[in-house]
Amino acid sequence: MEKIIITEDKYRYIEIGEGTPIIILHGLMGGLSNFNRVMEHFPEKGYKVIVPELPIYDRPLLKTTVKSFAKFVKEFIEYKGLDNVILLGNSLGGHIGLLHTKMFPESVKALVITGSSGLYESAMGDGYPKRGDYEFIKKKAQDVFYDPAVATKEIVDEVFATVNDRIKLVKTLAIAKSAIRHNMAKDLPKMHTPTCIIWGENDNVTPPNVADEFHKLLPDSDLFWIKECGHAPMMEHPEEFNTILDAWLKQRKF
Predict the structure, then answer these.
(1) What is the pLDDT of residues 200-216, one digit of tens each?
(2) How many CB atoms lie within 10 A of CB 59?
(3) Is pTM beyond 0.85 here?
(4) Domain count across the chain
(5) Distance between CA atoms of residues 47 and 88, nearest Å
(6) Are 212 and 218 in contact (CB under 8 A)?
(7) CATH number of the domain enclosing 77
(8) Residue 66: which domain range?
């Protein structure tokens, strides 16, 4: 299925299907294509899937923050005339989804997080990045997954290009620092939005104990594990990810 990126106003996004809206929030180094299989599956199940590009490299440095992107999501939801959305976020996208839900709980009826930052201080990785060292970047990209082969040359090349662009590198570090500052441990117990937590058992970026902590702190959450899986379950085990999420949405009557 070809996925066409729509450009309207200040937004770029993919939109497929009709029904209850699922808004997908990608991670810091993640593109829209990371969710290809999610985009293919859920429109057939009666959902409208919308994947906006987060303006990670387009905003002034002082607005390159988790809070700024949480507000961007709010503006996008209003622009699209949506309410009662389901937010699905991976890594930084999960963190943005969590903060958005804390700030604007009335617009979110369910939250799905996978490999999310928001609790763990090293969630953005450590020893990173070394500009110009392709093999180092390749190893870091491979470490995101249980199976290093998932880190294709295309993925590695994209990350390499980002860290060798000085402005993008500065903004990457800025958002990583913002994520560390925006630890949500004290906020989560007050957030009663139903939350589905899907986590790779072998996540090296946000280790399994992070998922346990999210589950413990979020009052209305369910935790699901995927074996032999790293930081991006929707890429590494897309069918299992979709099956888990599908069943949870049905069970919760979303």
Answers:
(1) 999 999 999 999 999 99
(2) 17
(3) yes
(4) 1
(5) 13
(6) no
(7) 3.40.50.1820
(8) 6-251
